[in-house]
Amino acid sequence: MKKWGTRQGPLPTLNYLIALEATARLGSFRAAAEEMHLTQGAVAQQIRALEAELGCQLFDRLPRGLEPNTIGKEYVHRLRLALGIVEEATREVLTQDLPRHPDQLILSTTPAFASRWLIPRMSRLAQSHPTLSIMIDASDISRPLHGKGRVDMAIRWGKPPFAAGHARFLLPGRATPVCSPHFPDHQRWQTPADLAQVPLISDSHHNWQRWFAAYGDPGTRINGPAFSLTNLALEAAEQGLGVALVPQLFADAAVRNGSLVRVLGDQYQLDTEAGFYILTGEPIREGSAASQFVDWLQGEARLASV
Question: Domains in the chain, start-ordered, CATH in brackets?
Answer without folding.
Answer: 14-94 (1.10.10.10), 104-173+274-305 (3.40.190.10), 175-268 (3.40.190.10)
